Structure formats: structure tokens, C-alpha cells
Amino acid sequence: MTDALDTAIDEALQSLADIDDPVERYQVSRRIRTSIESGSAALKQTQADIALELKTSRSWREVGLLMGVTGARAEQISKGK
Fold it and tell me: pTM value?
């Protein structure tokens, strides 16, 4: 999955390099950035949902251990921070 994402980002950046007109290149870069930011917000919400799902039968410390963060950080993630 990560390789596919890295490839997609590399291809998007290459497509920008192929655009000669700086105004057009800016407009396309803006659309790409908007898409990435939208995806980032969706991923942040997904991570919050996962943290809350893990919490149903565990302490924040246990959730943090499973997620590879501290318990306090796991709780922050659950709140979308």
C-alpha cells in the first residue's frame, strides 16, 4: 500500500515538472495539494476511530502500546489531535 502511495505522489510531482506554463503548473499543484489535504483529514478521522475501537476493552496505556505510541498520545489521537 505504501509503495502505491509513494508511486502516486511521485507521478503527481512528475506531472507538475512536465507542465511548462507556471500558472498552469501552480493550478495543478493546488488541486493536488487539496486532494492530499482532504485525504489527510480522512486518515486522521480513521485513526481516531481506530483508537476508539481499541479503547472499548483496553486502557489508554494498552491502546498506546498496540499503536506504538504513549497512552496519552493514543487518547489525543482518539480526539482527532
Answer: 0.71
Residue 76 grid cell: 489525543
**Pair 80, 52: CB distance under 8 Å:** no
DSSP 58: S
Domain spans of the chain, in order of start: 2-78
CA distances from 59 to 26, 45, 74 (A): 47, 20, 10
Residues 6+ apart with CB under 8 A from 70: 61, 64
What's the pLDDT tens digit per position in 8-67?
Answer: 889 999 999 999 999 999 999 999 999 888 888 999 999 999 999 999 999 999 999 999
Q: Helical H runs in 1-81? A: 2-17, 22-55, 60-67, 71-78
Q: What is the DSSP secondary structure assignment for residue 20, as one 8-state letter?
A: -
